[in-house]
Design goal:
By secondary structure, the chain is mostly helical. It contains 11 helices and no strands. The chain has a single domain (20-230), classed as MetI-like fold, CATH 1.10.3720. The protein is globular, with a radius of gyration of 20 Å. The mean pLDDT is 84.
Length: 231
């Protein structure tokens, strides 16, 4: 057990000493996850609104597909994105493979179904008289969308937190699309896997503590929002 305690002590030392390798992985994770969350919300909230608000042919099939994608393996998403971004792929000329934006594309595909599904569920749970009342008041589709989003804001924020929790902790996409390049595309999860395998237990623990801190912060915020929503 001594090596575990020693690992924690060294991990704290790396964090508080501003170790460059440690913070490079943290920065890569923040950059990729923040970009992917932005696009997941920009695309997912309107699509989730339409899926929850509109009735159309094939809605049940589409909803089943979105729900299935909630548990899609990250390594498969990484494989698909890699196939598109590799030199011989359709988007090979963009140079996005082994880059932070490339990782963000894959993570957007990971977070998007979560935002769509939970936003749709939130819209469906709203009072059915709300859209009718807005139409009666002369609201246009954009105003109906905005009023619905405001009404379901707590649920949408919770959806964003759930998506961010999955994005920041994934490893398959970051490893395959990012290439785990030191000082460039090495994220917290890929660094933990690599450094622990190399015997660098302290660095793995330091980065693991960062992930635990993120998870704790997300859970605290989610609990606070749930309490506010029930008041």
């Amino acid at each position: 057990m001594d090596y575990i305690l020693q690992g924690f002590l060294q991990g704290f030392a790396l964090l508080f000493s501003g170790d460059g390798e440690t913070y490079a992985a943290i920065w890569a994770t923040v950059a990729a996850s923040s970009t992917s969350m932005l696009f997941s919300l920009l695309l997912g909230v309107p699509l989730g609104f339409l899926l929850g608000y509109k009735n159309f042919t094939g809605k049940k099939v589409l909803r089943t597909i979105v729900d299935t994608l909630l548990s899609f393996p990250t390594v498969v998403i990484g494989l698909v994105v890699y196939a598109f971004l590799t030199r011989n792929g359709p988007l090979g000329s963009t140079g996005l493979l082994f880059s932070i934006p490339g990782i963000a594309i894959g993570q957007t595909l990971l977070g998007l179904p979560i935002i769509i599904a939970l936003t749709a569920a939130a819209v469906e749970a709203l009072d059915k008289r709300l859209p009718q009342a807005l139409v009666t008041l002369g609201a246009n589709p954009r105003q109906i969308l905005w009023a619905t989003v405001v009404e379901a804001r707590f649920s949408i924020v919770l959806a964003a937190m759930a998506a961010y929790g999955r994005i920041v902790s994934e490893i398959g996409i970051s490893m395959m699309v990012g290439g785990n390049i030191k000082w460039h595309t090495r994220t917290i999860t890929t660094a933990i896997a690599l450094e622990t395998g190399k015997g660098e237990f302290a660095l793995g623990i330091a980065l693991g503590m960062v992930l635990l801190a993120v998870a704790l912060a997300v859970n605290i915020m989610a609990t606070g929002l749930k309490r506010r929503a029930t008041l």
